[in-house]
Amino acid sequence: MSQAFRELLKKVGSGSHTSEDLTRAESAAATRMMLLQEATPAQIGAFMIAHRIKRPTGAELAGMLDAYEELGPRLQSIESAYPVTVMCLPYDGRSRTAPTSPLTALVLAAAGVSVVQHGGDRMPTKEGVPLIDLWQGLGVHWERLTLEQVHLVLETAQLGFVYLPHHFPLAQGLVSYREEIGKRPPFSTLELMWSPYAGEAQLICGFVHPPTEKMFQDAFAMRGTDRFTTVKGLEGSCDLPCDRTAIIGCKNPHSEFERLHLVPRDYGFAAKELPLIPTPDLIQDMTAALQGKSSELMQATLWNSGFYLWRCGVCSDLETGFSTAKELLSRGSVAQKLKQVIEMVETMSAIASR
């Protein structure tokens, strides 16, 4: 048993009237001890559920990010025309609505914006469809690459994926606790704000509940993160909704946090959200969208890609973003980008297996 961890556990686990918030340094220490398994399984499980009940603070999340930065993987900085975009989505995936994030990432990459995503396999407690399954369906096997190889793909083809089981085994070692405690721990919030990229980045952080967005702002302010976007997206993802107003927050260096309310019908994108369908069928629809074929998924992809092309600085306004996304898809640039990534990953994974 870790006596030091026991003292931190006592602070967060003393009940609604007597529990105390951890300092940033204490939170970093607790996260470090959990990642390194210096705390016992009983202590780790107790901390996760107690911390969930108490709710994390911005300072605590800043400390958790400090520990992830110290012990986790970091893709080295690359030269890029635009800040690298890190898309942070819930690791436990989607269970109700069809995702467009891989398609959005490909459109951005085709426009010259380098994109990093991260995540793992199907994860408790939601067990939704994770990003890695969608990339595999599209023919990209990120799980076969070393971190150094992912960096090379990012540098050359503007796309990268940090795969938790392979690239961050310390964090993967805590996944089983989610099933055992039956609830999402605060690590699920941390994953929405973690950047495994060492250079200048634009963080895209999906969320569901408004208090979570305030935690983002507080933690980022403490850590000096001044370029990020918050999206009240589908199932907490970065995917903008088509059936309601998109609530978005934008923070740029040397400017205040700004709120955007984008109404899909104002831009011709109002529609019902696409329900999640079996993954093989979804991959077929994604492939058709990559070929520029008109569909509801294509419209959702244009809505999302156009916004992010504007937000990342490629286009001067939203309308230009939408038309640019449509052009990239219709002329085959996005499909060609996917082909480039597939070929690079296959070549590198073949080298790694020798």
Describe the structure.
With 354 residues, the chain is α/β, with parallel strands linked by helices. The chain has two domains: 3-71, Transferase, Pyrimidine Nucleoside Phosphorylase, Chain A, domain 3 (Up-down Bundle), CATH 1.20.970; 84-336, Nucleoside phosphorylase/phosphoribosyltransferase catalytic domain (Pyrimidine Nucleoside Phosphorylase, Chain A, domain 2, 3-Layer(aba) Sandwich). Helix content is 48%, strand content 10%. It has 16 helices and seven strands. The chain has helices at 3-12, 24-35, 41-54, 58-71, 101-110, 131-137, 147-157, 164-167, 169-172, 176-181, 187-190, 210-223, 279-290, 296-311, 318-330, 333-352, and strands spanning 84-88, 115-119, 159-163, 201-206, 228-231, 246-251, 258-262. Strands 3-2-1-4-5-6-7 form a seven-stranded mixed beta sheet. Helix 12 (210-223) links the parallel strand 4 and strand 5 (228-231). The longest helix has 20 residues, at 333-352. The chain is globular. The mean pLDDT is 96. Keywords: Amino-acid biosynthesis, Aromatic amino acid biosynthesis, Glycosyltransferase, Transferase. InterPro entries: Anthranilate_Pribosyl_Tfrase, Glycosyl_Trfase_fam3, Glycosyl_Trfase_fam3_N_dom, Glycosyl_Trfase_fam3_N_dom_sf, Nuc_phospho_transferase. Residues 6-70 form the Glycosyl transferase family 3 N-terminal domain. GO terms for molecular function: anthranilate phosphoribosyltransferase activity. Residues 101-333 form the Glycosyl transferase family domain.
